[in-house]
Specification:
The complex is a heterodimer of chains A (510) and B (489). Chain A is α+β, with helices and mostly antiparallel strands. Chain A has helices at residues 15-28, 55-62, 67-74, 110-118, 131-137, 160-173, 220-225, 289-299, 343-356, 364-391, 399-406, 411-423, 436-445, 455-458, 462-481, 486-492, and strands at 8-12, 34-39, 77-79, 81-85, 93-97, 155-157, 177-180, 183-188, 195-200, 205-207, 210-213, 230-232, 241-248, 256-262, 265-271, 275-282, 309-312, 316-318, 322-323, 326-328, 334-335. The longest helix of chain A is centred in the last third of the chain and has 28 residues, at 364-391.
Chain lengths: 510, 489
Amino acid sequence: MISGASRRVVIVGGGTSGWMTAAALSRMLPAEVSIQLIESEKIGTVGVGEATIPHIRYFNALLGIDELEFIQATQATYKLAIQFVGWGSESSRYMHPFSDFGGDVHGIGFHHYWLKLREQCPELSFDEFSLAAQAALAGRFAPPLIDADFGYGYAFHLDASRYAAYLRRYAEQRGVRRIEGRVQSVQHHPQSGDIASITLETGTEIAGNLFIDCSGYRSLLLAQTLGVPFQSWRHWLPCDRAVAMASDALAELPSFTRATATPSGWQWRIPLQERTGNGQVYCSSQLSDDEACAQLCTALNSEPITEPNLIRFEAGCRRHSWEKNCIAIGLSSGFLEPLESTSIYLIQMAIFKLIEFFPRTNFLATSREAFNRWMEVEYHSVRDFIILHYHLNQRQDSEFWRSCAAMDIPESLRRKIALFRESAAVEFYDHGLFARPSWLAVYFGQGCYPSRIDARADRLSVAATKLPLVRLAQELRELAASMPSHREALSRSSVAAATPSMNLYGGRYG
Amino acid sequence: MDNSGQALQHIAVVGQGLVAWGAAVTLAELLKGAGVGITLVVLTDEESPTALVEVGQPALLDWLNRVGLNEAEVLARCGGLYCLGMDYHLAQSNFFLPYGRHGIRPAPATFEHEFFRAYSIDEQARFNEYFLATQMARRNRFAFPVNDPRSVNSTLRYGARLDTGALCELLQERAQALGVIIARSTNIHVEVNSEQGIAQLYLSDERIVQADFYIDATGPASRLLGEALAVRFEEENRASLWPTRLSARLPSKPSWQPFASIRREDECWIRRSSLQQHTVVESWLSMQANEEKAHSAFESMIGASSVQLMRERYGLREASWQQNCLALGKAAGHPGELLASEWHRAYQALLLWLELYPDRSSRTALSAEFNRRERARYIGWLELHELHSIDLTRGLDQCSESLRWRLEVFQSFGRLWPFDEQLINHEALIALLLGFGWRAAHGDILLDAVSAESIQKKHKKIYMTLVAAAERMPTLDQVVRQHCLMTDN
């Protein structure tokens, strides 16, 4: 039973976060809760999250969305990994796949054995030991089999606007009322300071009990109305602009996102069925907007089909995401650049936590505290992982990268890197998105190697170590080669038989 | 990269009792292929009484398997009995805390939420009856789990109760078979080197033991880490813990039950752990208890005069691993033993150390990671023991801040706020909270639209299935007689 204190939910803002929230709440909250969403066609959306991580499959499954219908509606392609180009040295290239690498041997991490061989067998890259990486490099895709020896996860590249539109239809069919209009003012309860209602430019007043701020960077309710301050992480993540542009679809569809480092930032390439999403993220003190557009145009792999869209941002998050009776979800809560495709994941986690801790009769304070604690952990763990990419770069081609390598980093990250450099160990944490395979991918991919490995792996001869690793790499290559091409998989409508889970690596972790 | 010259070649374990023997055997077995020699220095004159019975969770049997000890043989030698969980007796209610899982899939919310949705606050503890282990325990039944997820028996996990002295004897044989060098010494002198930590040990017969790494299993005295390396003990002064522990053997032949039972009295917890030939009774006295009075009450309750008294000192060393020394069990810290034995925690710590595994070089970041995780585990265990001591009627004000938060979230939403390190499984923790009388005001919102009647109907079916499955099983007596009966029984 929902008390009157939470029965009327008002979502301010549409876009990906607004409609994901509306769709999920309409599915999961009892019918007695009314949901209204205010958005204006005059206000554009950023369209975050064209590249996703496997958790989106869990979100869709919870909503009962058919995966094939979703792929068709959003023109999605499959995604097995992110390829990072030029993030270590300028010529470096590595995969961050949705799978583990190798597998522990006698309780010792696989990577220790690989490190043992690294100098003698440079042809055996770390990517060779991830099935998802191998399949992605071969331009292939097949849904993972249940109980296969080598598990992996998969996600999608999607058209975020189409996804929002799809979810809008979904939500409206389930009773969400969309109200067209722009917010003019916000009224408070005189005693509590809670938001009581919102008045639109048309004069319409919309009252509610819970207000969800999906207004994007403006953070209309949480920041502008309730004054929750922004914690800037610019000193760790200096990029503050992006320019986005669509181009024609690629002839060969990669099953991975590409993130290519440039002298003052990086470029993304996201292959959809009908177009390619491209963007340049950069630091405005290093590169002008015109230069960024020119760089992006030069790098396109296909003919542009839209004009450049300039986005300004600052990395960071609000001190907390839930204040009084207002919950910020998406960009109104914080911004982390889409380097690891975490935007939709962070929206999704906020929605799940809102539902888990949805305020009943007298628990608003506990709901708020639980939500804020949880989201802080999520934001901080993603933040550290993204900073890692910048900090570990070895590029010498610009002051931007040299200063990123030399900058002070959060203590939580400094500790992790020190542990790895000393002992090849990856710090364990139970809560937070990225586990050992992800950290290893970036450490090795960007040329960060430890001074020592596990002594038990170290004492083995190179010959004894090499043979099983060569065989494993061969087996994974063959498995990848046996998959259909990505385009063929799309036409075959391939989906996994197993129920999706909140797991990045397809069951091996988490 | 070749630092193989730095590999550990010799590890010395120092101490007495199960933690020392267990550590020596574990290291000898798990480092068999790594060319590491193990020496165990048994301190023969240390006055540190140890537990009479090992009430082992399922991890105990995993350990036996990993160190190459046959489970049935160990149970036969140690007069052991299989154990499906703990039977709690409180003033107002009883409940069973199973080791296994209920194994019922979320539909759409996790199973416990169905209880919060379908039953009144007073009836939520029904949840604990939906574990197969609970139904088996009620009927003195026992069966081994199967590895087929379609079978309800796959939800079972079991531990065992073993006579500690007999287990140590058995471990001694195993240690010898594994080539562990065993040295006995009435005392040791520890020589410290500021750079590496422990330099060498002088035994009472003037022998010298020099190793690359040292394991301190000397109990609360912490002769290596605490005394020699001066790592400070951070004493836990929570009034809620139990500073005195009394224990005794009841010689009479007990009835065999597949659980240990634990009873809360006014000023103590009393645990009865039956073995094949005797029962061990232990009492943890609260700070408020009159020790003399409690001692004589304990004696008259068990009808035995040979009562062992142990002073419990709760807390944690600032670091459990410093330089070339790792402390295990009470040498590292003590958060209470009602839920997890000293060896259970020591073994988990040893596994973590083996996962990280150093060499002879200084590994400050590696030891810091170990200490960070061990501290998180200690805090978790401490909180779970605090849960055993709080008085529900006095509300949350009496709790530590972290436990208060956890209980507040549970009471509000029926959800568990996660520990940094998982200590017991989610389902067992729910069973523990409900058993102690903590209740959730609401269940998962996903179930709001589901009628209580339909849930109750579904539960009735599940319950009947569990009861029928339990009744088909053999008794513990039958299983023990078939698998692991002590030879003179």
